[in-house]
Hints:
There is one protein chain. The chain folds into 2 domains: 3-248, Alpha-Beta Barrel (TIM Barrel), CATH 3.20.20; 261-338, Bacteriocin As-48, Chain A (Up-down Bundle), CATH 1.20.225.30. The longest helix is centred in the last third of the chain and has 18 residues, at 261-278. The chain is an alpha/beta fold. Residues 1-6 and 328-341 have low confidence and may be disordered. It is globular. 47% of the residues lie in helices and 13% in strands.
Amino acid sequence: MDMHHLGSRILLAPMEGLLDHTLRDILTRVGGVDLCVSEFIRVTNTVLPRRAFIRVAPELLNNSRTPAGVPVRVQLLGSDPACLADNAAALAELGPAGIDLNFGCPAKTVNQHRGGAVLLDEPELVGQIVAAVRRAVPAHIPVSAKMRLGFNDDHRAEECAQAIEAAGASDLVVHARTKAHGYRPPAYWDRIADLRQHVRLPMVANGEIWTLSDALRCREVTGCERIMIGRGMVADPGLALSIAQYDALSHGGTGSKVVSWLQIVQLMRLFWQGISLRVAPRHRAGRLKQWLNYLRRVYPEAQQAFEQLRLLHDPVKVSEWLALQGGEESVQRSFSAEICL
Length: 341
């Protein structure tokens, strides 16, 4: 078992349709993230070809690491233990930093096809899936799981966590909401503390971590030192670094933004370069605006940028807009002083 992975304190969450490998690349360049999990790869009734795994997690071609060197676990989603095991074995041949199993996706179409959070009503099946994948994968590759507290309610959360532990998972991420809760606040961190009374499996707390203060309160309430951040990191790319600095300074961090707007502009340029390589021209502007929509939660400048770009759809016009922001020399100088790109 890879103890480096078990010791990871800050994990970057998968976010279908948003936090893909391009944004993983950008966010892990800032620093503070110890481990990433890819978006889910849907497994149905066949063994997927090599390209299907690499499409979602091209980091597999780089020793399963982002360009910044952060390990990436690849997440599978499905309901057939045997088929998931066969796909996990195929994936293992590509050398992933770990294989994660999705028991948390709340999407209606996924749930209707017996995937994601709907399986939390069947703890025995959850355990069978984890056990089958664990048997199919070499011992040195961690097999982890991510679950919500339940589907419509949380009364089987303990059963699911116990099933995952008994099946041999290396660790468990718990998103502290049910499927019915969706993404509405609050996250019920106290229920993670409850689960920790029933299993000894290393646990990672997830849900509603937007600030350093949130991270500290989450750790205090759950008892988990390890946390996973999703939307909070998209809104504040320096959040993981802020938490890591707080920890490194023996709880002496300030919680203030560690990434300036000029640095955000440079990150947006890198992001734009990345999506321009793989996203159809008509969708590129939408991807940038999608990220800006989160950034304006933390950066007032992002609101102005969003308004300026709101009606722009032509990639050429967006490129021209990006070129005019800040000033290339000052942005590069700002990054070289604080963040290694």
